[in-house]
Amino acid sequence: MINQIYRNLKLTPPKILILGFAVIILIGTLLLSLSVSTTDHRGLSWLNALFTATSATCVTGLVVVDTGTTFSFFGQIVILSLIQIGGLGFMTFATLFALLIGRKISLKERLLLQEAFNVVSPQGVVRLVKTVFLFTVLTEGLGAILLSIRFSFDMPISTAIYYGIFHSISNFNNAGFDLFGEFRSLTGYVEDPVVTLVISSLIILGGIGFIVVHDFLEHKSFQKFSLHSKVVLCTTFSLIILGTIFIFWLEFYNQKTLGPLSFSGKVLASLFQSVTARTAGANTLSIGDLSDSSIFLIIILMFIGASPGSTGGGIKTTTFVTLLGAAWSQVKGKQDVVFFRQRLVPTTIYKAITVSLIGFIVVILVTMTLSITEAETNFLVILFEATSAFGTVGLSMGLTPDLSTFGKILIALTMFIGRLGPLTIAIALTHKQDKEFYRYPKGRFMIG
């Protein structure tokens, strides 16, 4: 089928990905607008259905209506399906189906998988898909079992099992949708070590990237990991630790957040907020009650996001650390950017700069536009919302349900851009350029 699309429409891999995600969102919008999808049997308006379908497919978690009380069992299953397909990518499921019926994966399909997983080469990408699927099933299954056992102390066993499955899938895919109602997310479990640590683990495992997971299963030794995996792991855990320390420090005496909690509760809540800011969207503290300094810290973490080839968004950890490495090399007067005794090729640095700049421009433009359409809202709240949408995080200070019609459309578009990646969309929208057979003479101008 994909080969037929290539032949008839001559679509490049980035365009196929954009079209695929758009079709899934439209199908989800149609299903969520049906009367059977809501508890009052009136269905959602097309705009709210579109927003919810986009948020679920782009594994964001921003919601304009409460998931737990608005949607029926059918509607919640639709959302959960969109989360799973959006998290792993529709190409993963298409490839698995092709393998089940015994069809070989063509080179063009491998190139599309390469684009979807953001890997360097199409070699071994089919084996990566099998690893991704198996790892996902096992991780989500274990998470569902642990959460179901914990929830069984608070609710009937059948409800606990359903809640365990839903929240395991939602958080592994870094979506952040929840069923607890009243937009409260996981605030009722702020000091619960089981819920906090299990969901934090699911978020981290979904956010480090399947390339790293495959590397770990293949080698099981950090010294044998690829440069990519080493950088991702070190950057991820450094950001989590630093985020935890700063939130703990900034919110320690805040009586609306960490203040009333025990010391262990403060640590758990700080850890969870640091982890979830990396594109997950669940929260155990009321985001609107955090101090401005903590809010700004979370904005930075959301913009950085998860890692390449994962279920998360943002500019990605490798992009962030590449920028730091390039700046450090310039300060030290060195020619190369080096990590773990390996130097980065210039194209990697250029790509990191491009992704960061496009992402920054997107967030700024969305923030500026929302500051006009949502003129009564505090600027920091708008910046937080725009960054959350771009990073496909899903954290909100309460603005999402009150967005104007244009604001909802703009945030939905931002989530779409954030999920696919700004560079992928930019490449898809530009014409293929011919190879240059000449180069202009060198020129110089002052920087800084």
TrEMBL record:
**Cited InterPro entries:** Cat_transpt (IPR003445), TrkH (IPR004772)
What Gene Ontology cellular component terms go with this record?
plasma membrane
Q: How does it sit in the membrane?
A: Multi-pass membrane protein
**Which residues span the membrane?**
16-34, 46-65, 77-101, 132-153, 194-217, 229-250, 295-328, 349-373, 379-397, 409-429
The molecular function terms in GO held by this entry are: potassium:chloride symporter activity
Q: Can you say where in the cell this protein is located?
A: Cell membrane
> Major place of localization?
membrane
> In this record, what's one Pfam family?
TrkH
Q: Specify the superkingdom.
A: Bacteria
Keywords of the record? Cell membrane, Ion transport, Membrane, Potassium, Potassium transport, Transmembrane, Transmembrane helix, Transport
| Keyword field contains Nucleotide-binding | no
Coiled-coil intervals in this record?
none
Protein name, please?
Answer: TrkH family potassium uptake protein
